[in-house]
Amino acid sequence: MRKGRSHAFLHSANKPTKAFVLLALSYLMLGILFGLLGGIQYILPGFLKDHLSFQQTRPLHVYLVISWIFCAAHAGIYYYLPLISKRPIFWQNGVWIHFVLQSATSLIIISGFCAGYFGGREYLEFPPLMGLFIFLSWVPFAINFFATLKPNFKTAPVYIWMWSTGILFFFITLSESYLWLFDFFRNNMVRDITVQWKALGSMVGSWNMLVYGTGIYIMEQMSGNVKAARSPLSFFFYFLGLTNLMFNWGHHTYIVPAAPWVKIVAYSISMTELLLFGYIILQWRKTVSGARKNYHLLPYRFLSFADAWIFLNLVLALIISVPVWNYFTHGTHITVAHAMGTTIGINTMLLMASIFYILKTENVFAFQQNKKWVSRGAYITNLALVFFWSSLLASGVVKISGALHNETFFYIMQKSQPFFRIFTYSGIFIFVGLGVLIATSFRIVMQKKQSETIIIRKPKSVSSSKILDFND
Ligand code: HEM
To answer: Tens of pLDDT along 59-80?
Structure first.
């Protein structure tokens, strides 16, 4: 039987998506590798100390995993834009300029970190000049987004509002995060800390807009229900998300002597966003018919995992945002649990749903052949994340109780060791689970596309030459 083999995965118009998917997955692979090295350094402080210390592995890890989130969102948006607008991408070369600028900037930043060059602030620890290149790399993306879509905001569904806001606020928050270069900010500690944390808190809001928008778009495609993304509830959620983006950063600055009302407003606002998004996914899951659920089983499963993590992280966020409790939890591993619980459990799961939705749409045969591995990778990651997240919470609690009982730092660290070990061992499993998902995605992307082959089951009496190939 001849199996019909046609052109490779993703036709030429979709080459940029392929490039961005592969770049995003490479960020993730490298990012979790450095995370793992950092995790090993938790329990073996001397590990690689002279070549790649924790002061290097941590920024490398954080820079790469945040790049994964942005880049995977870009990949999805580049893929969805022509489908939504029914027009080709406005400026094809612009996509490649974006790709080259972004890859080159990342290469310089990663080599710089490995060689010990720093010079920025927390989370953006590279020299400020690199921030300018990041800014510039986003310009062609923004042009392509608005010029391809030509959005009519009066009728646009909520995900277009979310993506537009995410792009706009990325430029604003990235610029704000470099205000410390001016003496007016740098010479006043309160002003400096407030502006810096406001910028970074809102930047998280901007990537959430891109990622949640992507989640809502694929939910619409999977359920076939176009009303939900235009419903008043979705828009109410959007405005709430926007309010969060603009004001919830206040919960990062409880330590700063700012006006009390800032803390109260920040606390009240920061609780609402996750609650509503969790509710939206829950409602959506009820509307998906059994047949569609089966057809899109794996992307659907990633969305369900994201939903579960939303609720777990919501409970945690509720606790750590109470100002008096935040005073104790701030700077402990409870904050790290919050950061990784949301970026792995929510953002990464939603982006995996988007990537596998694209891969399935483009090459259903390759997807079907590999789906067992996708499922295994997803289960390993999420199960390991439960232990990973809980161990971070537990070491945070040990630190707080030690501080309340005036225990020495050495004694607190000794008591935390069992939890650090659980953290690192479960981190190895997250690495394996995500590694399986990354390797499977690479395999699907590289696999040739099979044209539809219909095999009429061979009756016992019929020779194999009678098996019909639809391409014949
Ligand atoms: C998709 C995968 C991952 C994402 C998105 C992610 C995200 C993050 C983020 C945002 C931080 C900064 C936390 C903070 O400043 O509070 C962080 C820190 C860290 N992550 Fe991950 N992470 C991932 C996977 C892993 C894995 C598999 C390990 C392996 C053990 C790991 C180990 C670490 C370590 C050691 C830190 C530094 C914590 C500290 O400062 O004490 N991460 N990660």
So the answer is: 999 999 999 999 999 999 999 9
The structural domains of the chain, with segments of one domain joined by +, span: 8-150, 289-472
Give 232's DSSP letter.
H
Task: Find out whether 129 and 151 touch, Cβ atoms under 8 Å.
Answer: no
Sign, CA dihedral 306-312-313-317, equals positive
User: For residue 450, which phi and psi values (nearest 5 degrees)?
Assistant: -95, 130
What would the pLDDT profile of 371-392 be if each residue is shown by its tens digit? Answer: 999 999 999 999 999 999 999 9
Best residue among 61, 67, 200 to mutate for probing ligand 1's pocket (most ligand atoms within 8 Å of CB) is 61
User: What's the rounded Cα separation, in Å, for the pair 6 and 433?
Assistant: 32
- As a whole number of angstroms, the distance between CA 463 and CA 472 comes to 17
Of the candidates 237, 403, 390, the residue with the CA atom closest to the CA atom of residue 312: 390
* DSSP assignment string, 376-398: HHHHHHHHHHHHHHHHHHHHHHH
Q: What architecture does CATH give domain 289-472?
A: Up-down Bundle (1.20)
Residue nearest to atom 24 of ligand 1 (CA): 32
Q: How far apart are alpha carbons 118 and 105 in whole angstroms?
A: 14
- Indicate yes or no: pTM above 0.85: yes
Phi, psi of 11 (to 5 degrees): -60, 165
Cα(113) to centroid(ligand 1), Å: 17
